[in-house]
Amino acid sequence: MTVLNQFVMRIPKSQSQAQPLSEMEGSVNILTLGCDKNRVDSERLAAQLQAAGYTVHLDDYNLPHPITIINTCGFINDAKEESVEVILDCVKEKQNGKIRKLIVFGCLSQRYQEDLRSEIPEVDAWFGTDAIEQILYYLRSKIQPELLNRRLLSTPSHYAYLKISEGCNHGCAYCAIPLIRGRHRSKPAEQLLEEARLLADKGVRELILVAQDLTSYGIDLYHRRELAGLLEGLARIPQLHWIRLHYAYPNHFPMEVLDVMRDNPQICHYLDIPIQHIDDDILKRMNRNITEKEIRLLLDTIRTRVPDIALRTTLMVGFPGETRKKFEKLYAFAEEIRFDRMGVFTYSHEENTLAYTLKNSISHLEKNRRKDEIMWLQQDISLEKNRKMLGKTFEVLIDSKQDGYYIGRTQYDSPEVDNMVLLRQQANRCEIGKFYQVRITRAHEYETNGKIITDTQPS
Ligand code: SF4
Question: Whose CA is nearest to atom 4 of ligand 1?
Fold first, then answer.
């Protein structure tokens, strides 16, 4: 019985014959699951496939395409379950003859390739995480190294993610990512600047920097933390209006980043910094290499050096040994610090991680109860903070329109995870991908309403 059986048992085996490749002209659909780092990998593969002559679709869940490639996620149970479900859905489409070639890569496949190969034989090819060249070769195309900085965007054309490094050297006890993505490897600054320039030339105005650990950028290549230097280089790209930071590791945080943030208007006063917990015993068991005292000092320093900064964090509840008392300490910390944006994960017992040897004694129900308690608290905190925006004016980037509203964000909100600003279409004339000065007129838990007063397009 493998780890995956619980997700895979549901489909009858079929006799479908694989179609010879020559009939595979036409279109490829890349379905991306998991995080924005996976998204960048898919966009890079998409650009290569397009250059090889394929018609490439990204995340088209409405129509099965002859060649379907799934970029999977596999770091916690929920993510694994979602990835297997998408694979099984595509297997059904293949059994119905709508998909001819089904290819799977990414974190789930990197972690469980042998099990998956025997569990789901309907998939034509399995690859790991670093698979662009192999997939192209499998589809009888060659990688074009000169195009590796190019991306076919799956995000709206005005914002994009920039993955500045791969892997992680930290050994957080609950985390399977280093097992999947390997050691920390920074991408050379000149390549990143080139990639950013190409994205900016294509209309990207907001660049979101991502990695497993943003703050270690450069320690392998330049033997020093070089995130601040990279940010200064990116801030010199004139078309980029917003530059945003995600996934900062709290330990050894490079304080010079705050100076660059303060001195360069393009760099959003926004920082995503997962803290996970605040109890020293739990932090030790999680192998986070930081103490409550150090976390508090760091957050104080960040808020002192950039007073209007929006702090996003991730907390984890239900880690082995988290007594009710230790959870209440975490709750009190969240209540005291009043983070601007927050996500809460429940502990997932992952094989081969350090924590797998610990007794996973807290029930699923109790884990979810603790997650809900903190998210209810955060909902009140978010409403309180949104009410403080009433009557004030903020620069807003318009992302989309839906149900009679334009949907936008301030510099304090990242796409897909944070708050939104809603503008009634009848009362506001604006364009998607453009920036406007907006006065906030109403406040809710996770969104506000506003009215345009002027537009502020970057020159
Ligand atoms: S910093 Fe910790 S949680 Fe984040 S990817 Fe690395 S090991 Fe995992």
Answer: 212
Which residues, in sequence order, are bridge partners of residue 398?
408
Looking at the structure, tell me whether residues 37 and 123 fall in a common domain. Answer: yes
Domain that holds residue 303: 159-387
Is 168 touching ligand 1 by the criterion CB < 6 Å?
A: yes
Residue 138 structure tokens = 């499998």
What total number of domains does the chain contain?
3
Give the number of other CB atoms < 10 A from CB of residue 245: 24
Q: How far is CA 12 from the centre of its chain?
A: 34
CA distance 388 to 386: 5
Residues 44, 49, 50, 52, Cα dihedral to 10°: 130
What's the pTM value of the predicted model, to 2 decimals? 0.94
Cα 344 to ligand 1 centroid, rounded to whole Å = 15
Half-sphere exposure of 160 (CA within 13 A, CB side): 28
pLDDT in tens, 20-46: 445 455 799 999 999 999 999 999 999
Beta bridge partners of 266: none
